[in-house]
Amino acid sequence: MMSTRAVGFGPALRQAALRPRNVARNPVLRNLIARRTIQTESITPQAEQKILNEQRLRRPSSPHFTIYQPQLTWIGSIANRVTGAGLSVLLYGYALAYLVAPTTFDSTHVIELISSLPDAVKYAGKVILAAPFAYHSWNGLRHLGWDMGKFLTLKGAYASGYAVLAATAVSTVALVLM
After folding, report:
1. CB 146 within 8 A of CB 152
2. Most confident of 6-20, 30-44, 112-126
3. What is the pLDDT of residues 122-153, one digit of tens each?
């Protein structure tokens, strides 16, 4: 007896046997292919949502900070967002406080309050306000440079990042000493 492997009919015979028209005609092949090997069960939409939420809680956040080495580029990006949000909260908070109690937050009361504080508290407050303002301003100019197509290489991004940090330090000192 001749082997199909020796002649080379094996793949051709398998393909012919499992063609869709042959499977549709042969009930044994149709049942063999259509048979499921796993069991499923229906669940409620609430149970579906619970399973999905549990899977999302186990998924790591992206980027996963514990596996990446800190780099100036992404630390600078995060710092720019944080300083922008912080300055916005301060501005809107003061504006809302002034709208709610204009006699308490008018300029004369604010100046009297600040003048009564010790010098160390005044300088600390100036640093707390000046550093984010200076960083966000200089980094905004850096972003404008990127919009014009400047400093887009890795070397340029790092050089402009260090320049922003240096300008921030100088500007913070200048603003505090005013």
Report:
1. yes
2. 112-126
3. 999 999 999 999 999 999 999 999 999 999 99
**Identity at 91, one-letter amino acid code:** L
Is 7 exposed, middle or buried (CB count within 10 Å of its CB: 0-12, 13-18, 19+)?
exposed
DSSP label at 117? S
Give ∠ CA 153-155-159 in degrees, rounded to 5: 115
Tokens of 64: 């996963």
User: Which of these, 134, 105, 107, lies nearest to 126 by C-alpha position?
Assistant: 134
Task: Specify whether the CB–CB gap between 139 and 76 falls below 8 A.
Answer: yes
Beta-carbon neighbour count of residue 90 at 10 Å? Answer: 14
Integer angstrom CA distances of residue 163 from 84, 95, 133, 137, 155: 19, 33, 16, 13, 12
Decide: pTM greater than 0.70.
no
